[in-house]
Amino acid sequence: MITINEIKEEACKFRALLDNCDKSNTNLVIDDFPVMSCKLSSMLLAYHFLTLWPELELKGITAATGRNNQITHYWLEIGEFVIDITGDQYNIIDAKKLNKAIVRTRPFTSVHVSNKKESHLYKLFKIKEKEPITYGFPTIGKDFIEEMELAYHQLLSQENTHNVHSCS
Predict the structure, then answer these.
(1) What domain of life does the native source organism fall in (predicted)?
(2) Three-state SS for 129?
(3) Residue 164 lies inside a defined structural domain of this protein
(4) How confident is the model at residue 160 (pLDDT cuts 50, 70, 90)?
(5) Res. 63: pLDDT tops 90
(6) Would residue 67 count as lying in a domain?
(7) Contact 133, 83 (CB under 8 A)
(8) pTM for the predicted model, two decimal places
(9) Alpha carbons 72 and 37: distance in angstroms, whole number
(10) Which residue range is the domain that position 94 belongs to?
(11) pLDDT digits over 100-147, tens only?
(12) What is the C-alpha separation between 166 and 161, in angstroms, rounded?
């Protein structure tokens, strides 16, 4: 069974790869990362986790809050643990575009790994959808799987050219 410390260590390493990559030459990583990057980044992290632990069962969580649910977010869950590697985008986004609860909860860390019961995510957002994510990504189109594979290999190839630190 995978531990919360193993999850956090890998999430931190992976976030460092995203932070330090050449965004103009890395598929699925946009210049404004982490802003508007939660689903793509979470899917890449899921790819990473499933490369390390193929038997893992993840869930991709789509959530929203604010007037007309216009503030959206996406993160992963493994069992009782939440893994969010783009929550710090809410530190950057103008407070006028957010709701009071999110602004009051600032600052957010770049990597949030927590038990669901203790996570701020469940206090700030309403869950809209939970999608299962398993090895081989059977519910995802082949073209997107190929994009993830390319981006993942681009990130790993850049790992050796940057000083990548985890956030222990």
Answers:
(1) Bacteria
(2) strand
(3) no
(4) low
(5) yes
(6) yes
(7) no
(8) 0.94
(9) 11
(10) 4-156
(11) 999 999 999 999 999 999 999 999 999 999 999 999 999 999 999 999
(12) 15
